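2024-03-11 09:14:02 INFO worker-7 job=invfold-0412 stage=load source=structure_tokens
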């Protein structure tokens, strides 16, 4: 894309929070390796299963004066990888232990006669040993919706040096362990497939001879956890569709933050109530997260530069009765309300008016009425740089509707992967009405999407908005 171009990224919620920790399994597999290198010799690599001997490298040199002296060094000691799991199942803790030893001997040199040495000179023979042990963690997705973003968190305690960690996807391609817009590596759920994380620790030792040995032993406790990431982070891993423009209007459209990171889009419908998608709530806005005030709303055109201090979201609700219960697989009844700790009183931010069914969706479709979609996504600048959490808008007409949702197909300008729960407005010269909530679509080709109708849930919404 050219410099300064913008993109509207997945105002659609193309993924769902249905994925639970039980749908992700982590285990340590017998696919590691033990590498030993002594002195200036070649590295010896032994792949280890369970059990398997460690890699041992020796380097000896015989030095002849009037007598023979030797140096010898080795990398030995079996690398052990002990794993234990903790709740939830998507956390794996394990320990790596490695050992290296070096032995050196001095020698003397001088003029040799048939009798004792003369002009003796004492010399030391140095040794050098390096040892690296690699473990492999398999991340397996049992089920759930595809392309849900997850963070991979790696932590280490005790001693040892982590070196050259590597994360690969089901296609064998490496996944970056760092990104300027993400605090952790991001993977997308791929039901039935695996990701592999290789972690390595290293140790080294050596000596300068003198008939002594030097030892180095390393034990390192590691923990790998796979946790649901804010939905917007799927945009780091999947292509995005060009189209749409940045906007500083639509002041009543907010971005929802999880632990300070952009997650979904929502619309103010009363001074202390927001409307968003249910799949932005389910699995994400847990009791612990809400009670610790880690779910907030920010108003403005850039999540990192809000118009005023973010507001805490205290609780949330979505349809769960027998007649209309949110389905995290099909995204049916994908609507939710969020309650703010403090009402919004900033000048110019007014609650959105709700669509009551007039004009009808039949009229909207037959007339080709354009809807305006608003959400927080990515900016694409020169060099494919991405900047997340930027408000933008795009417009198109619907192509179909049913009792609870409207659909559209706009190849080339459709939304794709990322922000969810944003509004679709009906606009004219006199009014701007919240007509639908962005929900889901075809997240592979990004040619199709559907939104949840506001008018179909007025009887559910109004009592909760007036609380």
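2024-03-11 09:14:09 INFO worker-7 stage=emit residues=467
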């Amino acid at each position: 894309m050219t410099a300064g171009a913008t993109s509207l990224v997945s105002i659609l919620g193309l993924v769902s929070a249905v994925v639970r920790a039980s749908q992700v399994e982590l285990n340590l597999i017998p696919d590691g390796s033990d590498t030993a290198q002594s002195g200036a010799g070649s590295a010896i690599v032994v792949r280890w299963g369970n059990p398997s001997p460690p890699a041992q490298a020796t380097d000896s040199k015989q030095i002849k004066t009037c007598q023979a002296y030797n140096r010898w060094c080795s990398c030995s000691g079996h690398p052990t990888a002990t794993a234990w799991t903790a709740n939830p199942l998507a956390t794996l803790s394990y320990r790596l232990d490695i050992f290296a030893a070096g032995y050196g001997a001095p020698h003397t040199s001088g003029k040799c006669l048939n009798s004792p040495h003369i002009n003796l000179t004492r010399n030391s023979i140095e040794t050098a040993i390096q040892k690296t042990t690699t473990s492999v963690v398999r991340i397996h997705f049992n089920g759930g919706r595809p392309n849900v973003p997850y963070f991979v968190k790696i932590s280490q305690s005790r001693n040892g040096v982590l070196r050259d960690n590597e994360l690969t996807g089901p296609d064998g391609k490496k996944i970056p362990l760092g990104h300027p817009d993400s605090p952790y590596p991001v993977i997308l759920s791929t039901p039935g497939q695996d990701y592999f994380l290789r972690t390595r620790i290293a140790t080294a030792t050596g000596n300068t001879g003198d008939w002594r040995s030097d030892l180095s032993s390393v034990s390192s406790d590691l923990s790998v956890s796979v946790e649901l990431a804010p939905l917007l982070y799927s945009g780091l891993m999947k292509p995005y569709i060009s189209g749409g423009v940045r906007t500083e209007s639509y002041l009543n459209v907010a971005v929802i933050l999880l632990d300070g990171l952009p997650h979904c889009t929502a619309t103010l419908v009363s001074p202390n109530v927001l409307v968003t998608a249910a799949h932005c709530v389910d699995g994400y806005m847990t009791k612990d997260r809400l009670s610790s005030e880690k779910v907030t709303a920010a108003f403005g055109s850039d999540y990192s530069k809000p118009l005023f201090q973010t507001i805490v979201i205290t609780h949330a609700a979505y349809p769960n009765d027998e007649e209309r219960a949110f389905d995290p697989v099909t995204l049916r009844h994908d609507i939710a309300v969020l309650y703010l700790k403090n009402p919004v009183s900033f000048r110019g931010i007014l609650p959105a008016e709700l669509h009551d069914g007039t004009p009808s969706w039949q009229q909207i479709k037959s007339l080709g009425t354009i809807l305006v979609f608003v959400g927080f996504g990515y900016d694409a600048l020169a060099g494919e740089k991405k900047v997340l959490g930027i408000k933008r808008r795009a417009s198109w007409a619907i192509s179909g509707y049913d009792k609870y949702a409207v659909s559209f197909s706009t190849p080339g300008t459709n939304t794709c992967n990322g922000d969810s729960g944003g509004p679709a407005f009906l606009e004219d010269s006199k009014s701007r009405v919240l007509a639908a909530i962005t929900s889901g679509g075809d997240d592979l080709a990004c040619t199709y999407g559907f939104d949840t109708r506001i008018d179909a849930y007025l009887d559910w919404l109004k009592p909760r908005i007036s609380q």
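2024-03-11 09:14:09 INFO worker-7 stage=report msg="The chain is about 5% helix and 50% strand."
2024-03-11 09:14:10 INFO worker-7 job finished
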